[in-house]
Amino acid sequence: MKSSYLSLCLILLSISANALAADEGAAVVDIYGNPVQAGVEYYILPVIRGRGGGLTLASTGNKTCPLDVVQEPQEVDNGLPLTFRPANSSQGVVRVSADQNIRFFAVSVCIQSTMWTLQFNDSISNYIVTTGGVEGNYGRETVQNWFRIDEFDSDYKIVHCPGVCDTCRVVCGDVDVLVQDGIRRLVLNGDGPLKVMLKKA
Ligand SMILES: *[C@@H]1O[C@H](CO)[C@@H](O)[C@H](O)[C@H]1NC(C)=O
Ligand SMILES: *[C@@H]1O[C@H](CO)[C@@H](O)[C@H](O)[C@H]1NC(C)=O
Ligand SMILES: *[C@@H]1O[C@H](CO)[C@@H](O)[C@H](O)[C@H]1NC(C)=O
Fold it and tell me: What start and end residues bound the annotated signal peptide (predicted)?
């Protein structure tokens, strides 16, 4: 009894130590320099011009659902608005390198949620960013649902490397674009991170 309680405490301690490190970090700011607020709608837009627009949902390859996260083909398109939910739900702003759930604020034709989740795709031998994640429950059962925003040059990149616990083996990588059949899919670890900025919707 006593020893199981002790190990539970140790697990809780390591979770909060990881989450705390990022809670101290700087706030992510939007294109006007304002802190990005949890639960408020933003567009995630590319910084580099002429290579696609904002982020949106699309069916890719030969499957209809769940929808995958892709970039709009046209630079002028903002895509769909998104909201962020920090792993530490008492955080009102999105902090650099803190784990978040990211969700499209949109209605989908699929039964799956519009929340981002990472999934391995055998046919392209890479992890893709798709949807159908479940909100919250920060821990080893939900590792695939957490993304963070890291500083990258003077802009940002999206990273998957959840700090859910010290003993979990997690996949780490930068979110990048893979162009396939003319569709700009979000994957992990491609040619280089997708450099992004945030604009209030
Ligand atoms: C969550 O964020 C709040 C507000 O910044 C902070 O006081 C608290 O320590 C954080 N909790 C954890 C577990 O990181
Ligand atoms: C994996 O990618 C291929 C090629 O784009 C696609 O046809 C297939 O439906 C994808 N599978 C899953 C499970 O997403
Ligand atoms: C369709 O998707 C499945 C699952 O990813 C894959 O095994 C199959 O090869 C794909 N078929 C075609 C024609 O792309």
Answer: 1-21
